[in-house]
Write a structure and sequence with these properties.
globular; alpha+beta; two-stranded antiparallel ribbon; 6-stranded mixed sheet
């Protein structure tokens, strides 16, 4: 596993012209939404589930990031097959949630739990690693506030999700108050995605995360 990881990541960093965009979102609406969702439905969802759903929905709105480099062509996918980075004993695996844009928050939550459990028990099937179109790596649960991930080829983008942290922020009345913020960094393949396109995607992602009720529509 380490050999395969080494080969793929070395190829990615030496062959792909990476660029990075970071946004800091107001996480307070997401926190309130999660609390209300759990109270109303009785189903448990995590902040990661909300982020995964938002990443998939935003990728349908801005499909140029949901793409791959194919040598003499760029492939834009009509569906979002979400690769989810999961830490296992020997390294890292990225099983795929297929057609993630069509799944409810509860379905995404169940899919992530199932994949993570079977990944750590080494019970995933080979085809469950294949066909991803965009990747999400979340280190927030480890207390990491911000990081840059390495693009997972042939995909064109990977999202690095950090922890929700308390910090002083300036509100709409120009007053300093305590807020909750979360950083998300997009690593992109510049052969496929330009900075302006990636910025449009991040804007769409911010809107969904700061108005998470949109994920229920």
């Amino acid at each position: 596993m380490r050999r395969v990881i080494a080969e793929r990541l070395l190829a990615s960093k030496t062959q792909i012209p990476h660029f990075y965009l970071t946004i800091e979102i107001d996480a307070a609406p997401m926190m309130a939404f999660r609390k209300e969702y759990i109270a109303a439905s009785g189903g448990k969802i995590t902040f990661n589930d909300i982020a995964l759903s938002a990443v998939a929905r935003a990728a349908m709105q801005k499909p140029k990031v949901n793409a791959a480099f194919a040598g003499d062509a760029i492939i834009e996918y009509g569906s979002v097959n979400l690769s989810v980075a999961i830490a296992v004993e020997d390294g890292l695996v990225t099983p795929v949630i297929r057609d993630a844009q069509n799944l409810s928050l509860q379905q995404i939550s169940a899919a992530v739990k199932d994949l993570a459990t079977r990944a750590r028990d080494k019970k995933l099937k080979p085809d469950e690693y294949a066909g991803g179109t965009i990747t999400v790596s979340n280190l927030g649960s480890y207390g990491i506030e911000q990081f840059c991930a390495i693009v997972n080829p042939p995909q064109a983008a990977i999202l690095a999700v950090g922890a929700i942290v308390k910090k002083p922020v300036v509100n709409s009345r120009d007053e300093i108050e305590i807020g909750h913020r979360m950083s998300i960094t997009l690593s992109g393949d510049h052969r496929v995605v330009d900075g302006a396109v990636a910025a449009e995607y991040m804007t769409a992602l911010r809107k969904l995360l700061e108005s998470p009720a949109l994920l229920l529509l």
